[in-house]
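Bumping my old thread because nobody answered last time. Still need a sequence for this structure:
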C-alpha cells in the first residue's frame, strides 16, 4: 500500500497579487498628536504601512510575500494588544473613527490572514492547498 502523497501547488510569485501595494505618504495622515495609531497602541506602529491594508486580497498577498519570522513577529505583537484593541474599537462608530483608529482597525483585520499560518500551519502556508492567485475575493459595493 502506497503512502498518501501531498500535492504542492506551484506559486506564481510574479503574479500581480503578490506585488507590494503602493502606499501614499503616511505623514500626511498622522493623528493630531503626530502618531500613526492611538497612543496606547504605539508599539504597533512599526507594522503600519505593511499590515494596515484595506482589502482581503492585499492582506492575503502580504501574508504570502512574508517570511514566517515576519508573520510570527506581527502575530505576537498584535495578539498581545488584540483584546485591548478590540475593546477600544468596539466603542467607536465609523463616523467617530479617526485615521489612527482606522489604521488600528486594519491592523487587526490582518490577523485573520496571519493567525492560521502561525496557529495551525506553523508555516506561511499549508502544503497542498489551492493557489491563492486563482481565487479572487469580490465584495459588493454600496450603491
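Sorry it took so long. Here it is:
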Amino acid at each position: 500500500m502506497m503512502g498518501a502523497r501531498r500535492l504542492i501547488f506551484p506559486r506564481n510569485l510574479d503574479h500581480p497579487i503578490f506585488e507590494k501595494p503602493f502606499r501614499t505618504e503616511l505623514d500626511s495622515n498622522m493623528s493630531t498628536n503626530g502618531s500613526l495609531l492611538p497612543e496606547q497602541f504605539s508599539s504597533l506602529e512599526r507594522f503600519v504601512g505593511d499590515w494596515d491594508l484595506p482589502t482581503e486580497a492585499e492582506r492575503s498577498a502580504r501574508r504570502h510575500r512574508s517570511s514566517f519570522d515576519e508573520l510570527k513577529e506581527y502575530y505576537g505583537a498584535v495578539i498581545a494588544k488584540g483584546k485591548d484593541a478590540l475593546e477600544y474599537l468596539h466603542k467607536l462608530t465609523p463616523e467617530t473613527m479617526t485615521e489612527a483608529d482606522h489604521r488600528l482597525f486594519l491592523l487587526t483585520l490582518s490577523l485573520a490572514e496571519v493567525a492560521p499560518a502561525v496557529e495551525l500551519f506553523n508555516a506561511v502556508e499549508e502544503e497542498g492547498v489551492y493557489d491563492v492567485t486563482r481565487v479572487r475575493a469580490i465584495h459588493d459595493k454600496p450603491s
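Confidence is low (pLDDT under 50) at residues 1-32. Let me know if any region looks off to you.
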